[in-house]
Each structure stands twice: as structure tokens, then as C-alpha cells.
Amino acid sequence: MIYITQLIYIQDGKEAIFHQFEDVAIPLIKKYNGKLLLRIRPDNHAVIAGSIDKPYEIHLVEFDAECDFERFMQDEERKHFLHLKEQSIKAVTLIKGDKI
């Protein structure tokens, strides 16, 4: 198993465009032996301490193997809608990990 955590930062006023991309991308995860474990939209009260900006969303996704994640990233349907991601996202921090 491989775990992917994303801290997603959205450009102001571009939330609807981001949601259009997510409506396509999230269902594709299953196609590549993945599972969306958490999709969190934290508010200001959710942050107890930190030295980075609060992300718009936090995603935790599990894939059976690294190659499944790579195939998901190269999915043609997903790539067709990447312009929505590029228009809406300011920055993403992607963290890969294993369950221990």
C-alpha cells in the first residue's frame, strides 16, 4: 500500500472550478486500485497550531501500489480536465507514505 496526502491551496474565487476538476478526478481513483480515505475542508477552528497556511482541502488516498498511483496520474480522462486544476489551484503539497 502507498498513501498519498495532499494539502491543496485554492486561488481566491476559484473554488467552483476546483470542484469541477474533483468531480472528474475523484471517481477515477477506484479505477486504479485506490480509495479516497479522507477529504477534509478544515475551518479556522480546526487548526490548533501550525507554521503553514491552512489548506482549502486535505486529501488522504490509498493505492495498492506505486504503479497504480502513477497510472492514475497519467489517466487520459483526468489529463483532459487538468486545465481546471491549473486554473484553480495555487499550490499543492503532496506527501507519500507507507503504513507502519
C-alpha Rg, in Å? Answer: 14 Å
Whole-number mean pLDDT: 96
Number of domains: 1
Sheet with the most strands: spatial strand order: 2-3-1-4
- Structure class: alpha+beta
For the record, the CATH architecture stands as 2-Layer Sandwich
Number of strands: 4
Question: Count of helices?
Answer: 4
> Distance between the terminal alpha carbons, to the nearest Å?
10 Å
Unreliable stretches covering 5 or more consecutive residues: none
- The helix/strand series, from N terminus to C terminus, equals EHEEHHHE
The fraction of residues assigned to DSSP E strands is: 25-35%
Main sheet? 4 strands, antiparallel
CATH fold title:
Alpha-Beta Plaits
CATH class: Alpha Beta
Task: Name the descriptors.
about 100 residues, alpha+beta, Alpha-Beta Plaits, 4-stranded antiparallel β-sheet, 4 helices, 4 strands, about 30% strand
Account of the protein in words:
This protein has helices at residues 15-28, 66-73, 76-80, 82-88; strands at residues 2-10, 34-40, 57-63, 89-97. The N and C termini lie close together (10 Å). The chain has a four-stranded antiparallel β-sheet. It is globular, with a radius of gyration of 14 Å. It is α+β, with helices and mostly antiparallel strands. It has one domain (2-97): Alpha-Beta Plaits (2-Layer Sandwich).
Task: Describe the protein's topology.
Blueprint: E1 2-10, H1 15-28, E2 34-40, E3 57-63, H2 66-73, H3 76-80, H4 82-88, E4 89-97
Antiparallel strand pairs: 1-3, 1-4, 2-3
